[in-house]
Amino acid sequence: MQTQVGIIGAGPAGLLLSHLLALHDIDSVVLESRSREYVENRVRAGVLEQRTVDLLIQAGLGTRLQQEGLQHHGIEIRFNNKAHRINFNELTDGEGITIYGQQEVVKDLISTRLAAGGEIQFNVSAVCLQEIDSENPSIEYTQAGVNQKLECDFIAGCDGFHGISRSSIPTNKIASFDRTYPFAWLGILVNAPPSSDVLIYANSPDGFALHSMRSPTVTRNYIQCSLDDNVDAWSDDRVWQALHSRLETIENWTLMEGEITEKSITPMRSYVCETMRHGRLFLAGDAAHIVPPTGAKGMNLALSDVSYLSAAINAWYLAGSEELLINYTDNCLRHVWRGEHFSWHMTSLLHKFPGDNRFQARLQIAELEFLSQSNSASTALAENYVGYKFD
């Protein structure tokens, strides 16, 4: 088979890239190792920055997003029995975030691509990239027991941190940076309406907690736990005890309970591969960078990447210009490192680190007190949270 752009991975990045390319009549084929049912139902990120929402709407993907997405114009940070509201309306000239699950973005993209005749191949295996440093790269893979070869002009690696794309780049060409955090998040999906009109981030003596939501009837809560924790060790009673203890630190507020439908533990890490291009292979999203979920940047950075990549590929086909392809990595990394810093900052500010002493704990509280008193500090946090816009 032949196409113009071969895309590995049917997550938000790969699917949006395929859609954006199609708007400019550029053909692509998306290859996905999982089933359609799996990618449409895996619960991941759910916070969309303002510029991400604008991008999806401009691309014709805003119908369900605007109808069902939960618009938020602030967050709340709790510490020392205090609650500090970060008001996005006042601090960012009316910009905000929208709660709309990654799986919903994926559903919208898959249905849109298939309705337009786009090609998405699910359940592929044995993917191998060939001749990526030549002008005629290709992707070999197996589907339904049949070996296939897809010839293309460009390959987009949107297949996540553990995918084949980044590992296809020679090791001596990789420039990467990483940090592993000494704790994890226990994520809980609950059939209960939100207990707040905004996300609540809590720095408590027992560790971090977050109250978030996925819809008017489903909430997503997180509890800081140890790296060697096991889901089986967290009974429902223990989960609720920890959430109540860490979140109910102010008067006249109660966390609503409900049926827990999912529990999972996610390690925390920061990672950046600055080699986002090698020959005709371009990395995007988690294939190139990982952030702790504290700053809600993962999916937003992935969609930012493919907005740059689609524009670069379009310029190449339209005018034969390589300028945007050459500048792709630099354009992406401005946003990536801003997102990495903000996610690191939020993680450091709100979590309890093993081995921290009383001095370090006091420093955290001092910074949180400053945040609650300083309009400039609150503005900086708000600008980063809704998505900092570079000139």
Specify the structural class: alpha+beta
Largest sheet: 8 strands, mixed
Hey, roughly how much beta strand do the residues contain?
25-35%
Sequence stretches where pLDDT stays below 50 over 5 or more residues: none
CATH homologous superfamily descriptor of the largest domain: FAD/NAD(P)-binding domain
What general form does the structure show?
globular
The average pLDDT value, as a whole number, equals: 96
Q: What is the number of domains? A: 2
In DSSP terms (H or I, runs of 4 or more residues), the helix count works out at 13
| Order of adjacent strands in the largest pleated sheet | 6-5-14-15-16-13-17-20
Kindly describe this structure.
- The protein has 391 residues and is of the alpha+beta class.
- It has two domains: 225 residues, FAD/NAD(P)-binding domain, CATH 3.50.50; 121 residues, 2-Layer Sandwich (D-Amino Acid Oxidase, Chain A, domain 2).
- Helices cover 37% and strands 29% of the residues.
- The chain has 13 helices and 20 strands.
- The strands form four sheets. Strands 6-5-14-15-16-13-17-20 form an eight-stranded mixed beta sheet.
- Helix 1 packs parallel to helix 9.
- The longest helix has 23 residues.
- The mean pLDDT is 96.
